[in-house]
Specification:
Order of helices and strands: HEEEEEEEE
Strand content: 15-25%
Distance between the termini: 78 Å
CATH class of one domain: Alpha Beta
Shape: elongated
CATH topology of one domain: minor pseudopilin epsh fold
Largest sheet: 4 strands, antiparallel
Helix content: 25-40%
């Protein structure tokens, strides 16, 4: 008599049912992990842009600005969703002027699903690394605040202080 090797239909169905249960339990955790990873990446990229602008302003002994970019990253725009630009700011303060300003670095768009709830239009640093007041004589600390997929576990902010230092945090900006 020949001995059969392999799985029976019942064993295969039971295995697939167990696999489906395990996957259904792991999927929500994976989504949360991806959201938190995207939030951390966005925070780090914005912080990198501020740090680069501040150090470049000190190094070059001039003004350097960071602004949200348009979709092709050639000019400043209103929303940080399309990415951001770090540029020397020799012309009109806080405005990327192709004739006088030089783009130092561009940063890619924020991950899909990123919703910015508090934004700043531009951050300019002077030769001492301090934040320069452009239309803000009080130089109050300013925040960029966002969530990924409008989920609270990915709620983050970057607080830009009077002295030009930036700080990351979770939750709402205080």
């Amino acid at each position: 008599m020949r001995k059969n090797s392999g799985f029976t239909l019942v064993e295969l169905i039971v295995t697939l049912a167990v696999l489906a249960i395990v996957v259904s339990l792991a999927l929500p955790s994976m989504r949360s992990f991806v959201r938190q990873s995207n939030a951390a990446t966005t925070s780090n990229n914005i912080l990198t842009a501020f740090t680069l602008a501040r150090s470049e302003a000190i190094r070059s002994n001039g003004n350097v600005s960071v602004c949200p970019s348009n979709t092709d990253q050639t000019a400043c725009a209103a929303s940080w969703n399309n990415g951001w630009i770090v540029f020397t700011d020799a012309g009109v303060a806080g405005v990327l002027n192709p004739g006088t300003d030089v783009v130092i670095s561009t940063f890619a768009a924020a991950p899909t699903g990123t919703v910015f709830s508090r934004e700043i239009n531009v951050a300019t640093f002077n030769a001492m690394g301090m934040r320069r007041a452009i239309g803000d004589p009080t130089l109050m600390p300013r925040c960029i605040e966002y969530k990924i997929d409008n989920n609270d576990d990915s709620h983050r902010y970057i607080l830009l202080g009077r002295t030009g230092t930036a700080r990351l945090g979770k939750g709402a900006c205080t």
